[in-house]
Amino acid sequence: MSETHPFKPFAPRGATTLIIGTFPPLVQYRDFKFYYPNNTGNRFWIIMEYVFNYKFQYWKDDAAAEERKALFKKEHIAITDMIEKCIRTNGNSSDKNLGEIEFRNVYKLLKDRPAIQKVILTSRTDGDSWQIHKNI
After folding, report:
1. How far is 54 from 84, CA to CA, in rounded Å?
2. What is the pLDDT of residues 61-86, one digit of tens each?
3. pTM
4. What is the CATH architecture of 2-133?
5. Each residue of 56-91: b (16+ CB within 10 Å) or e?
6. Residue 3 to residue 17: CA distance in whole angstroms
């Protein structure tokens, strides 16, 4: 069954950096409703703590999502994923098991936020994941 991305792009006015991921994990692995919502096995937000010398107080639920949005707004960072809709071909959260992909319009986001000067892709670019990157 096709799955639609549950989060809208987060792109505060004045954002100068755009972080682009792939697609969120299965719902049972999400600790909050925002990008990189799984605290088990994903180090994204731990890395952000080091990058911005910031210690998150919340790791679950709405407070965690709002805390992360506030940090990214303060730091002029936008975040989205490249996939809008797909099918999980193996019933797990691995990027290599995403099929029948519909891409998000990342170009429109960049046009709407002309201050963005840097784009960071968080997914691997080897093997099957490269097929996703080369199509955006």
Report:
1. 30
2. 999 999 999 999 999 999 999 999 99
3. 0.88
4. 3-Layer(aba) Sandwich (3.40)
5. eeeeeeeebbebbbebbeeeebbbbbbbbebebeee
6. 27
